[in-house]
């Protein structure tokens, strides 16, 4: 019923905006892991979840978890979730949209008595801002939050374990946060945070995989010298070497389908106009859905950097700061989601996610799928971040078709099980 | 007499090192215009000058001026000088060497009763550190220090006029600082501050001209975007545009004889590894002895920057911060200096100065010439800045030959004058 979906879409956006009023910094949206405004967010979601017929609790890492139980006996559990925390000065939809969508789906679906229960999880931490460590919420649910991590401290010297205590929770209960064994699938809605869907005029993206990623730091060391008195052939210009590398990064990535490679940071020392830069530090961020393609890019680009440095008598030091394999999502669920969008009457495109999401952490543990909603202007991590009501409507309609497609499969499984 | 010159060279270096102990910052050499340690420097030089038979005073801009009067009646005046101030954390020779050389020349020469007087000037300000305005000392001597300049303030809000008062001087006396009308030539010794002489194994450089210079700021403005979710073809990467420009600057200058062009500053915003840079600000410093060559380089390189920006949907804003024409030194004096080096038995090479010097300010007013001494390691503006004793010896021997070559010319002039 389009009328209903339209109302829901408006309501979903309004709920996200209401959540956004709870912030550490008045006038902007900043809500880090287990900071005071998270209590209000939990209270609000708790209220909406209970009204939708869910039983609600907060687990030991601070994830808010609402469970709607199917009236069908021994029904398996579908998990729908995304995260509650934000980057500093964020928008109103990154993360929270997926949680509010989950609650709305329960509100819509429960009358139909589907053959599965639904657990909606608002993950406490995904952005990695407070403790420079991302995915704390989903790692705990996946059972992969190692105890050492709890000793990490924030900028005020507070450890994760202390933050948990201070919030009124007990890290000793972390084992109970692990995903229930009856969970059979994970579904996450998220804004695209990129310009692809908008550039193609499409509401929805079906995520096939989350890209693998390499982050490096390159240090070019030449000699700082007088810009006026040092002829070109006697220079060891770290800036020129680094610039040649930056240009090559862009050219290489442009020439290789699906690859993104970025130098976003370049720090020159001494960094003044009349002195040849003696030292330049750059970042390198390379992502691709195929790990071999990514590794080949890293090899090729570091070789180019070495050549650019050597030719100028500049030394190069490389440091790998992050290396993360690509995570494929469940092919069957992804195909089902694609079909659901088509049946709901919305064109969608298969795509890879260039950013990390909670689904990346859960996918190795439970069959997972993700639906992207178009990001107007490609904007994200920005106060102007938005989502269009018609795209929320499309996502909701697709979700309902998806769940309808899931239901007979589950009934079949149950039949099979009972025959076994 | 090589023995004497060798002793003098050792003494000159020792005197420079003694001056270097007077600093604003203990443990390093930092001596800005009219700061307290300048009093001790003046006192020391005053003492050496008086011992050499000179009458000494400090002019209204803080230049220390010692005059040795020739016993020949109505003898014209040779001016020898360089500066007393330093950059922060400087070496012991930039500037001061030329002043100490001048005093030593008087000590050596006065017994020979040459047909010219010698004024040694220790310019109070050349580096432009304290008031972000260079050449205050020589501008006053050239009569080109405009009154508005005196209102400039340092980082503590003290104006140049106040700094002069605080030092015990009176800006009202600035007109008396202007070069005497009987001055016929200006000679400046200075370390090269570059690697050319060392790379060719030569002690001395004869400066034919000081390069013209253009300094610009370029602002590339694209769009900051997520490094993972923004495909290459939808980027407006300010860093990539700037990097293409940096590479072109190096290539263009390398291909054009005598041109130096440098991007020493590059500031990226937001400047983090996983965000495409939305905004990059770079410097451009271009120098050449021929103004047309320099202007053509500015045109070509700004055009390249525009193309690199436009191709990426990045806007470019240009700002010219400094534009200074090349300053030729006096061809006759320069030829004489070259001949003097040869007669003293030292190979020298004609060259242009890539840096500005007090001679640049005086050259339009009085025939001027400069002698460069090799800079070990090309180092300058650095605590390890040095000068080799044998190069000081060579410079001193060259100076004595130069003054010997000057003397008959002056006698001829005087003969001519007396016949007129």
Description:
Chains A, B: Keywords: Hydrolase, Manganese, Metal-binding, Zinc. Chains A, B: Its cofactor is Zn(2+); Mn(2+). Chains A, B: GO terms for molecular function: allantoate deiminase activity; metal ion binding. Two copies of one chain form a homodimer. By secondary structure, the first copy, chain A, is an alpha+beta fold. Chain A folds into two domains: about 5-210 and about 325-405, Aminopeptidase, CATH 3.40.630.10; about 210-325, Alpha-Beta Plaits, CATH 3.30.70. Chain A contains eleven helices and 16 strands. The first copy, chain A, has helices at about 1-20, 35-50, 95-110, 135-140, 160-165, 195-200, 240-255, 290-310, 330-345, 360, 390-420; strands at about 55-60, 65-70, 75-85, 115-125, 185-190, 205-210, 210-220, 225, 260, 265-270, 275, 280-290, 315-325, 325-330, 350-355, 370-375. In chain A, the strands form three sheets. In chain A, strands 1, 2, 3, 4, 5, 6, 14, 15 and 16 form a nine-stranded mixed beta sheet that branches. In chain A, strands 7, 9, 10, 12 and 13 form a five-stranded antiparallel beta sheet that branches. A two-stranded antiparallel sheet of chain A has the order 8-11. In chain A, helix 1 (about 1-20) packs antiparallel against helix 3 (about 95-110), helix 7 (about 240-255) packs antiparallel against helix 8 (about 290-310) and helix 9 (about 330-345) packs across helix 11 (about 390-420). Chain A is globular and about 80 Å long. In chain A, about 55% of the residues are buried. Mean pLDDT of chain A is about 95; it is low at about 415-420. At the A-B interface, strand 7, strand 8, helix 7, strand 9 and strand 10 of A face strand 7, strand 8, helix 7, strand 9 and strand 10 of B.
